[in-house]
Amino acid sequence: MGKNTIEATDATFAELVGESTPTLVDFWAEWCGPCKMMEGPLEEIAGEQSGKLNVVKLNVDENQQTAMQYGVMSIPTMIVFQDGQEMKRLVGARSRKQLEAELASFVG
Q1: What are phi and psi of 97, to 5 degrees?
Q2: What is the DSSP letter of 1?
Q3: Backbone phi and psi for residue 63, each to the nearest 5 degrees, phi listed first
Q4: What's 96's DSSP letter?
Q5: Residue 1 — pLDDT band, cuts 50, 70, 90?
Q6: Which of 53, 42, 44, 56 lies closest to 106, judged by CA?
Q7: What is the Cα 32 distance to its own chain's centre?
Q8: Would you name the residues annotated as active-site residues?
Q9: Angle at which helices 96-107 and 33-48 pack, to 10 degrees?
């Protein structure tokens, strides 16, 4: 994990997404090329939006229970949670600019 992102597990997931601060969860896997493309932009956004947006990464190979619970069928899937509720779902890799536009309503 990067220095600005938080690693989630099945055991810690509910606590991490239950906060009032919006939390972007990146469902990813080591073998996923598009997931690797998202690492840099997510790390940068996490650093720049610190305090406004938490960025959490959940490895779907190691935490299958949570991935199944949220119906993650393809990766990368990124879900924004607030107070434990799913607010927005993004499936597939995006440029940093596209990702920032998608997240603007949560960090504005």
Answers
A1: -60, -45
A2: -
A3: -135, 60
A4: H
A5: low
A6: 53
A7: 15
A8: 32, 35
A9: 40
Rounded alpha-carbon distances, angstroms, from residue 27 to 3, 66, 91, 107, 108: 18, 10, 10, 20, 24
% of the chain surpassing 70 pLDDT: 99
CATH superfamily entry for domain 6-107: Glutaredoxin (3.40.30.10)
Q: In a 3-state reduction of DSSP, which class is residue 84?
A: coil
12-59: per-residue pLDDT in tens?
Answer: 999 999 999 999 999 999 999 999 999 999 999 999 999 999 999 999
Element (H, E) at 91: strand 85-91
Do residues 56 and 25 lie in contact, with contact meaning Cβ atoms separated by under 8 Å? yes
Of 103, 61, 104, 57, the closest CA to residue 80 belongs to 103
Domain ranges (residues) in the chain: 6-107
